[in-house]
Design a protein that fits this description.
With 324 residues, the chain is an all-alpha fold. The protein is built from 13 helices and no strands. The protein has one domain: Orthogonal Bundle (ABC transporter involved in vitamin B12 uptake, BtuC).
């Protein structure tokens, strides 16, 4: 855990000092002249320290919690459609929000709330299947996720068809994912939402451990399984929805990071959840650094970088758990 924390600090320092405009390490303690101060404090700090770090934490913690609750190593906010539901909610607000005549105090929070609502609806839909047909198998989760993602693609395509040029540019942002719009005014409200919901998930470590024995056994050991499900459902939907609302679609972090954390600290959620949070934040910050620097001064979409990491790992995972 200490090494993961040091790795996160090293990743953040590297991301703060590297980019299209290099910033000397000493300027982290004294921001220097006006240009370096503006780049460091107004551009990179909200992007690296707050947005990329928190979104990585949100996806990793929600992926870990969903895998523990489903008792399934392939449960992931992206694969099971939660991220797509959040994107549909955010995109619907982009296209239809101007017609809703929302008040000035609601407007800054409308997009994150719409994304959270979309993620919650998809998660509740999955649990409606669980209540009706029993626990999901790995194959069932993947098939339902494919169906939900396909339906979300239809809805997103419909919004693209009816959107104007300005809205279409915003839709492309959500589809590809980026941290380029980070600012303190945008990230701080979302940071509070993610921190609160992620804190709820981090407090479920013992119930999630007991749930691995099965729902009847967890119930007899004193766990209110229904209450645990509700907490995990809505907390995971909140962190994923808030993250998607400000960054768009970021793939594979919620799937890859929990498995990497298990290799490092084991399967007990007491250490697995905080390890996943640290590792998710660090990997997302490094992925954003690659996206900013590999084609500088242009930027790659963050989903291209995370998918380049996650897709080979996913193939390795499938080969590892194949029937023998």
């Amino acid at each position: 855990m200490a090494l993961l924390a040091l790795g996160l600090v090293a990743a953040a320092v590297t991301a703060l000092t590297h980019g299209a405009a290099a910033i000397p390490f000493a300027y982290l303690f004294d921001a220097g002249d006006g240009l370096h101060r503006a780049v460091l404090l107004d551009i990179r700090a909200p992007r690296v320290v707050v947005l990329a770090g928190l979104v990585g934490t949100a996806l990793a913690v929600s992926g870990t919690a969903l895998q523990g609750m489903f008792r399934n190593p392939l449960a992931d906010p992206g694969l099971i459609g939660v991220s797509s539901g959040a994107a549909v909610g955010a995109i619907a607000m982009i296209v239809l929000g101007s017609a809703l005549a929302l008040g000035a105090w609601v407007t800054p929070y409308a997009l994150p709330l719409a994304a959270v609502a979309g993620a919650a609806l998809v998660t509740l839909f999955l649990y409606a299947f669980a209540e009706r047909f029993g626990h999901f198998s790995i194959v069932t989760i993947l098939l339902v996720g494919i169906a939900v993602n396909a339906l979300a693609g239809v809805v997103i395509g419909g919004f693209q068809y009816v959107s104007d040029d300005g809205q279409l540019r915003s839709l492309v942002f959500w589809m590809m994912g980026s941290f380029g719009r980070a600012s303190w005014s945008l990230t701080l409200p979302v940071a509070l939402l993610i921190a609160a919901a992620a804190g709820v998930l981090l407090r479920q470590v013992r119930p999630l451990d007991l749930l691995q024995l099965g729902e009847p056994q967890a119930f007899h050991l004193g766990i209110d399984v229904r209450r645990l499900k509700r907490r995990v459902i809505f907390s995971a939907a909140t962190v994923v929805g808030a993250g998607v609302a400000v960054s768009g679609m970021v793939g594979f972090i919620g799937l890859v990071v929990p498995h990497l954390a298990r290799l490092l600290v084991g399967a007990g959620h007491r250490y697995l959840m905080p390890a996943a949070a640290l590792l998710g934040a660090g990997l997302t910050i490094l992925a954003d650094l690659v996206a900013r620097t590999v084609t500088a001064p242009a930027e790659l979409p963050i989903s291209l970088v995370t998918s380049a990491l996650g897709a080979p790992f996913f193939l390795w995972l499938i080969a590892r758990v194949r029937p023998r």
